[in-house]
Each structure stands twice: as structure tokens, then as C-alpha cells.
Amino acid sequence: MQLGRAFRKFNTTTLVGKSVKVSGEAYDDIEPGECMSACILAFAGGKFRYYRSTFGYTNTSGLAPKEEKNALGLHQFYVDDNREAMDLTARAAKAFGIETAQVVMGVEMAYMAEMGIDPLLLTLASVTKPRGVYTLPPSPVKAG
């Protein structure tokens, strides 16, 4: 959330994808990428946010369209026996009880509203099975 707020402070545009240097070009190209889990909190901070689930483009021969996948995904908090694999919220829930996890969810919902995103988006994370990922559908995420 701190990264997202910094993005917002500096009017940064966020997009899902990977920047790749194109030889001889003055700018980078964008290839499909992923923004999963806590990444969505940083993504949400963008003054303008761009996400689409697929890229359509023509290959180098100019003949065939190709479709590549992008992914913007959420998941619920979960507790894993491997402490290094646990995220901060899961560790808090285990150490301090489920009440802490609910507080963290409330903080995240308030943050999403602050960034102009419907906080109910986080309900998609909470109904996703543990260790699963809910990938947002093809329609773009619009900036608030």
C-alpha cells in the first residue's frame, strides 16, 4: 500500500505487463506479464491503471495474429506451515487470531476506496479457495 500511495503521489501510470527493450527503438515494448497477490495493491495506486487479459498483435512475418495472456490475480489469506512462504497477513492471523486478519482486510478495503477502486473487489479474494488465484476477467480495470 505504501508503494501504491507513492505511485499516486507522483501521478504514476501502472499497467500489467513486462517492459522489454526493443533494439533501435526509442521506447520499450510491453509484453504480457502478471500482477498477483499483493502486487494488486501497488497496481491500484496508479493515477491511471491499464490491464487487459490478452494482447493481440501480429508476429514478425506480419501474417498471423497472436494472443498472449496477461494476469491480474487475487487470493485469500492463508496459513502455510512453511513460515517463509506465508504472507504477512497470514502470519498475523496465526499469531494474533482471525480478528487481526479481519482488521487487515478492513485496512485493505479502505485503501482500495482511497484509490478509487470498489473495495468489494476484495470479496473476490476472500471467496477464492486457499492457494487458488482469482484472475480478473478481460474487461479493463478503470482508474477512479
Distance between the termini: 16 Å
Please write the string of helix (H) and strand (E) elements. HEEEEHEEEEHHHE
State Rg: 17 Å
Q: Compute the average pLDDT.
A: 76
Describe the protein's topology:
Layout: H1 2-9, E1 13-15, E2 18-21, E3 28-31, E4 34-36, H2 39-44, E5 48-50, E6 54-58, E7 65-69, E8 71-74, H3 88-96, H4 98-114, H5 121-126, E9 134-135
Helix pairs in contact: 3-4
Keywords for this entry:
144 residues, 3-stranded mixed β-sheet, two-stranded parallel sheet, 5 helices
Quickly describe the structure.
With 144 residues, this protein is α/β, with parallel strands linked by helices.
Overview of the structural elements:
By secondary structure, the protein is an alpha/beta fold. Helices cover 32% and strands 23% of the residues. It has 5 helices and 9 strands, in the order αββββαββββαααβ. Helix 3 packs antiparallel against helix 4 (98-114). The protein is globular and about 55 Å long. The two termini are 16 Å apart. The model has no long low-confidence stretch (mean pLDDT 76).
